[in-house]
Amino acid sequence: MREDLYVLELDEMQQSAVDLEDPTHLFFDYTRRIGDIIDRLPDGPLRVVHVGGAAMTLPRYVHATRPRSSQIVLEPSTELVERVRAEAPLPPRSGIKVRPVDGLNGMRSVRDGFADLVILDAFDRARTPTELTSAAFVEDVRRALSPGGVFVANLVDRAPFTRVRDFVAAARDLGSMAIGVEPATAKGRRSGNLVIACGTLPPAPFGTPPPMEYRTFSGRAVADSFGGGRP
Q: Is the pTM of this model over 0.90?
């Protein structure tokens, strides 16, 4: 493994990977897809709320690609935050503010209309806490989003995608919706990451990867495959 690649392991899983020399290099495929969405948002600095911090992969990406962005990270594990700060310090003057609070309570404290982008990427024993996919949490995200804002959630699920279907039902009124998933997971062969984006989405929010690399659903395909979402 390269010396400049910092890998954070939690619960016997590789939770995060950060290229310390080049934070725009996103190692895990699902982070690359979220990076695609970030890249397609309007130019300039962003106001971002990250629900879940881990090694701060995506906050570092935003800092590198969108200088002067204002970012809030909601991460309840102070032990984890101190570990990451010691092993892979954040860049100086990054504009990344880490709040030692869980996502549910932390989102309640975000002021109305603050966020251009909310990213949910939080896990407890390899699962996103149920309260962070609830209708109540989604409503708090709606309140915190600015007009034209986008909400992106990374969930781990497998066919028949019960958790994703419940989340889609809760979030479908936020606006347009698109879902990205690896083909093996889409076909039900194994569990995997599903990236759900909703709100005022840019065209082709996940980019245009080769068909075998990633499968994307948008418009009517979201409703047909996952039970909800606006075209």
A: yes
